[in-house]
Design a protein that fits this description.
homodimer; alpha+beta; Arc Repressor Mutant, subunit A; Alpha-Beta Plaits; 2 domains; 5 strands; 30% strand; DNA-binding
Chain lengths: 155, 155
DNA sequence: AATGAAACTACTGCCGG
DNA sequence: CCGGCAGTAGTTTCATT
């Protein structure tokens, strides 16, 4: 499943991870490669599925969503149908940003966004607690978040 | 703190959230706006801090990192110095992708990436458990993850 | 807010190692 | 197979109206 990614590819991915808007030409100049060569490498990484696309970095707070909460959810009943039903229902809630199926103390981890705490309480009571099969839930309110280079620093 | 974002801006953000590589011209054509008008709106959103940039979507598995683990961390001692020390130390671990300071049962949530489970055990024992002030930890192994439109669907 | 111009960027062939 | 060169189409970016 792994793909051949050499040191030059990693350098490109590192640079793009820092700023995904940079052009192939600018990247190539900085690392002694021509613009088409750099561009073809990026394209190859996309076709290989390593680079799956570019996502927006939005400031939820400035869009009026001041509260982000992580919710660990334990299902009361865990048949295959329960998982499917739960996922179908939870993905239909607009305030849910991310649905993670996990192994451990909880079955799902949700990233939920709300305008403020009263709004979050509404989502929790009316949307989440009424989901099919929901058992225990545990909430963590986000104070601050920092994203690091991650695997590209390790690789 | 909130910024004026009208329905057209939201439509642009929604379209870009679906595919961040689309050009201002293509977006404008699709929604009956000229290319410069669309481009100026995007730029205004960037200057207002609503649109903070673009991030890469990487397939960690294809880069050789097959295991993603979420780790809830409770600190044993929670003075201001403890928080600073912990954050400084944890951000230096290359396998740590995201550091979230949260309120609730745990103090921090970490997103950690490793090549496989033995590799994760190494990170956990040698890197995480030796961090200054670490108390209880709780791990969740990621099985699958789905990102939804989120606030743009709700807004 | 549209138009037009200048610079830049993405993308395609073709050729050399 | 990978990189450089040259060329075209499309995009950004800015000045002007």
């Amino acid at each position: 499943m792994s793909v051949e990614v050499d040191a030059t590819d990693l350098a490109i991915l590192r640079a793009l991870a820092a700023d995904a808007t940079r052009s192939a030409g600018a990247l190539g100049r900085e690392m002694g490669l021509s613009q088409p060569a750099t561009w073809r490498r990026i394209r190859r990484l996309e076709e290989a599925g390593v680079l799956k696309g570019r996502r927006l970095r939005l400031d939820a707070g400035r869009l009026g969503f001041g509260v982000t909460v992580f919710l660990g959810v334990k299902l009361a009943t865990k048949g295959r149908v329960s998982l499917d039903d739960f996922e179908r229902a939870v993905t239909a809630i607009p305030e849910v940003q991310v649905v993670e199926h996990v192994l451990g103390l909880y079955d799902y981890r949700l990233r939920i966004i709300a305008r403020d705490l009263p709004d979050f309480e509404r989502v929790l009571r009316r949307r989440i607690m009424t989901l099919p099969g929901v058992g225990e839930v545990e909430a963590n309110v986000l104070l601050s978040e920092e994203r690091l280079p991650g695997p590209l620093g390790a690789a």
